[in-house]
């Protein structure tokens, strides 16, 4: 999104404009979610924390600071909240789990699955890809780069990248079909 | 494209742009294409699932739920929240709060002459359904306020007593100060402490007040000046109508687990289950036909409301429908 448009929405939010607020929410939600999952693998906690973050933004709308880079502001805000959340967990109720702050793409794909069975399945599925394919999939779908950008970065022909990605998707699809009922349940909920 | 399989759609640049809504032209094109090719719907859905999986995005349906949750929050008129009372807050707000505080104080004097009323600025914090908040008081004590609850507390503890007023539920970790007792007023029951961690549940609808002590020592006093002392691991259940209490042991996860996102049921009847779900998720639970009485025991941690209902329905042979933030339960045919 153009920076200028964002700034206008931010100013409108400060004046209490609900539409501008929902616009910023929609524009940043998925980015915040993906980022939040890298900080804490508990997806329900990440969802709750993003929800709280926006509730707080709304409550404080008239007193929000002038922000140059809204995306960076929101990301820092979320990270701080998530880190505080993990410090807050009471030891008496469940054992503290120490989690590394940065996870690889592969680890993330696995950890985002809701139960142990699915984690194992996705892990096995990813092993069917070559390391090169996995990296291209990451650049294409997680970083959301174009085939040309990926080709430039990896010093390959765009056609080669496309073919590799397509090949990887075929592999994933084939094995996904086998467990489609399970994964569908996962996607749908 | 008529021969496309899911993986072909998922690899297509413009299809990706459609799914992630990054290019309005692609969105328009694919929405039209999908409408006119219903026979490809299975492949399209598979492709979109593949994209969500690989992009680590929250699936659309869940995102819609989250958006609805936020909408509900901003549409719920709540008293202006004052998480940390800062000087940036206008004088007007401060005087409004002061008036509220004085009103509360007046009401309190009427009900309980024995409690000294500090002449000080009061802060009020209310949570709607589905939200909990952590607050730090001026003495360093922390309060985790549960959903659908309201707390009043002085901006500063100037008087010789630390006086808090609560409706709903909260978990208190009280900073030790033997010279200034900490007093939580819930209706006509006062809980007095010196330094401790405890949970107070005083939802008006439940008709009872429960005080559960984790650490330290608390003393309860009702309107008739009867007193009861609790030791760690004990809880008092006070019936507001009869002004009688009983003392029992309690399960700390069932009582205070809510603050870490636990939802715990032990032999809970429908009313208890419905109220807990309403508070935690903001979904109303409705029984559509009379069912034989049942009791549910189970534990959830930060689970989606759908999953919670799914589990309960499965074990109690119920079917459910979710529509406009209402959950309709009925007996399986």
Layout of helices and strands:
The complex is a heterodimer of chains A (189) and B (333).
Chain A lengths: L2 H12 L3 H22 L3 H17 L10 H19 L16 H7 L4 H11 L4 H12 L4 H8 L3 H21 L1 H9 L1
Helix pairs in contact in A: 1-2, 2-3, 2-4, 3-4, 5-6, 7-9, 8-9
Chain B lengths: L5 H6 L1 H7 L4 H13 L4 H15 L4 H16 L15 H21 L10 E5 L6 E4 L5 E4 L4 E5 L7 E12 L8 E5 L2 E5 L3 E6 L5 E8 L2 E4 L5 E4 L3 E6 L4 E6 L2 H5 L5 E7 L1 H12 L2 E4 L8 E6 L3 H11 L2 E6 L2 E6 L2
Parallel strand pairs in B: 5-6, 15-18
Antiparallel strand pairs in B: 1-4, 2-3, 3-5, 4-5, 5-8, 6-7, 7-10, 8-9, 9-12, 10-11, 12-13, 14-16, 17-18
Helix pairs in contact in B: 2-3
CATH superfamily of the largest domain in chain A: RNA polymerase sigma factor, region 2, helix turn helix motif
Low-confidence stretches of chain B: 78-118
List unreliable stretches of 5+ residues of chain A.
90-100, 178-189
What is the percentage of strand-forming residues of chain A?
under 5%
What can you see in these coordinates?
The complex is a heterodimer of chains A (189) and B (333). Chain A contains ten helices and no strands. With 189 residues, chain A is mainly alpha-helical. Chain A folds into two domains: 3-88, RNA polymerase sigma factor, region 2, helix turn helix motif (Rna Polymerase Sigma Factor, Chain: A, Orthogonal Bundle), CATH 1.10.1740; 105-188, Arc Repressor Mutant, subunit A (Orthogonal Bundle). With 333 residues, chain B is an alpha+beta fold. Chain B has three domains: 6-57, no CATH class; 91-254, Jelly Rolls (Sandwich), CATH 2.60.120; 261-331, Phage tail protein beta-alpha-beta fold, CATH 3.55.50. Chain B contains nine helices and 18 strands. In chain B, strands 1, 2, 3, 4, 5, 6, 7, 8, 9, 10, 11, 12 and 13 form a 13-stranded mixed β-sheet that branches. The two termini of chain B are 44 Å apart. The relative contact order of chain B is 0.07. The interface between A and B is large, with 55 and 52 residues.
């Amino acid at each position: 999104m153009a920076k200028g448009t964002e700034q206008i929405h931010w100013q409108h939010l400060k004046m209490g404009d609900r539409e501008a607020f929902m616009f910023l929410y929609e524009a940043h939600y998925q980015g915040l979610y993906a980022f939040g999952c890298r900080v804490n693998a508990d997806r329900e906690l990440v969802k709750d924390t993003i929800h709280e973050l926006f509730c707080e933004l709304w409550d404080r709308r008239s007193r929000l600071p002038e922000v140059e880079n809204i995306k960076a502001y929101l990301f820092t805000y979320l990270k701080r909240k998530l880190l505080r959340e993990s410090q807050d967990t009471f030891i008496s109720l469940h054992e503290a789990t120490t989690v590394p702050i940065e996870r690889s793409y592969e680890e993330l794909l696995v950890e985002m699955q809701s139960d142990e069975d699915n984690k194992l399945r996705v892990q096995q599925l990813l092993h069917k890809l070559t390391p090169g394919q996995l990296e291209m999939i990451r650049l294409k779908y997680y970083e959301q780069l174009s085939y040309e950008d990926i080709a430039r970065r990896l010093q390959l022909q765009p056609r080669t990248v496309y073919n590799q990605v397509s090949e990887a998707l075929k592999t994933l699809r084939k094995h996904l079909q086998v467990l489609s009922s399970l994964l569908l349940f996962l996607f749908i909920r | 494209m008529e021969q496309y399989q899911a993986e072909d759609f998922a690899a297509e640049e413009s299809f990706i742009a459609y799914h992630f809504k990054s290019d309005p032209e692609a969105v328009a094109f694919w929405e039209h294409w999908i409408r006119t090719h219903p026979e490809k719907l299975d492949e399209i859905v598979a492709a979109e699932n593949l994209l969500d999986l690989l992009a680590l995005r929250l699936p659309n349906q869940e995102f819609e739920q989250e958006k609805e949750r936020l909408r509900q929050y901003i549409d719920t008129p709540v008293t202006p929240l004052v998480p940390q009372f800062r000087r940036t807050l206008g004088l007007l707000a401060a005087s409004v709060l002061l008036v509220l505080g004085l009103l509360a104080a007046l009401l309190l004097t009427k009900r309980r002459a024995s409690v000294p009323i500090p002449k000080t600025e009061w802060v009020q914090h209310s949570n709607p359904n589905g939200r909990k908040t952590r607050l730090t008081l001026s003495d360093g004590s922390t309060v985790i306020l549960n959903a659908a609850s309201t707390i009043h507390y002085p901006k500063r503890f100037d008087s010789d007593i630390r006086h808090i007023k609560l409706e709903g539920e909260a978990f208190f970790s009280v900073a030790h100060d033997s010279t200034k007792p900490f007093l939580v007023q819930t209706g006509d029951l006062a809980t007095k402490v010196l330094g401790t961690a405890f949970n107070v549940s005083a939802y008006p609808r439940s008709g009872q007040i429960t005080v559960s002590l984790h650490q330290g020592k608390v003393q309860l006093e009702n309107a008739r000046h009867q007193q009861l002392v609790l030791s760690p691991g004990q809880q008092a259940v006070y019936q507001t109508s009869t002004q009688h209490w009983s003392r029992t042991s309690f399960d700390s996860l069932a009582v205070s687990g809510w603050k870490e996102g636990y939802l715990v049921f032990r032999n809970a009847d429908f009313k208890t289950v419905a109220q807990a779900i309403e508070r935690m998720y903001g979904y109303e639970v409705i029984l559509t036909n009379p069912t034989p009485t049942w009791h549910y025991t189970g534990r959830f941690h930060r689970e989606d409301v759908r999953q919670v209902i799914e589990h309960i329905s499965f074990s109690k042979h119920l079917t459910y429908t979710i529509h406009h933030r209402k959950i309709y339960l009925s007996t399986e045919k």
